[in-house]
Design brief:
The chain has helices spanning 3-63, 69-77, 89-97, 101-121. It has four helices and no strands. The longest helix has 61 residues, at 3-63. Keywords: Coiled coil.
Length: 141
């Protein structure tokens, strides 16, 4: 190959290498964004799990002394279940919370709204999935 032929091959190859590097750079950028996104999702999942544990703990403490210990786990695991409205449980909870009842109820509704919003934004479908918390119902009084 003459010098001009080599120069032609090199000049023809440079745009190919440049193009490959641009695609590589874009790919690296996507991977970096994905890793940041993945870390953020993991952080969000961890935060949501922490909040769930906190709320379960509050419910367990709230129910302690109101219902038998054998029912507390079932009630916390099934917040919309019949156990919450059985045997005057709601009335006892309201009595225990006394002046804090309205704030407690408002906080639970805020959590429910935020959870519903996140579910819908994540494409959770059209069905209404939230749990109707039995401890919020005012119809029992």
């Amino acid at each position: 190959m003459s010098g001009f032929e080599v120069a032609g091959v090199v000049l023809g190859g440079i745009p190919l290498v440049t193009s490959m590097l641009e695609h590589y750079k874009t790919g690296i950028s996507v991977i970096q964004r994905y890793r940041r996104y993945e870390r953020e999702l993991q952080r969000l999942i961890r935060n949501l799990e922490t909040e769930k544990v906190k709320l379960q703990s509050v419910c367990e403490k709230l129910l302690d002394g109101i219902v038998p210990p054998s029912r507390i786990d079932d009630m916390v695991e099934n917040p919309g279940g019949d156990l919450w409205v059985r045997d005057g449980t709601q009335k006892a909870i309201r009595t225990r919370l006394w002046k804090s009842w309205d704030v407690f109820e408002e906080i639970l509704r805020d959590i429910q709204t935020a959870t519903d919003d996140m579910y819908e934004k994540l494409g959770g479908g059209t069905e209404k999935w939230h749990i109707e918390l039995g401890i919020i119902g005012r119809d029992e009084y």
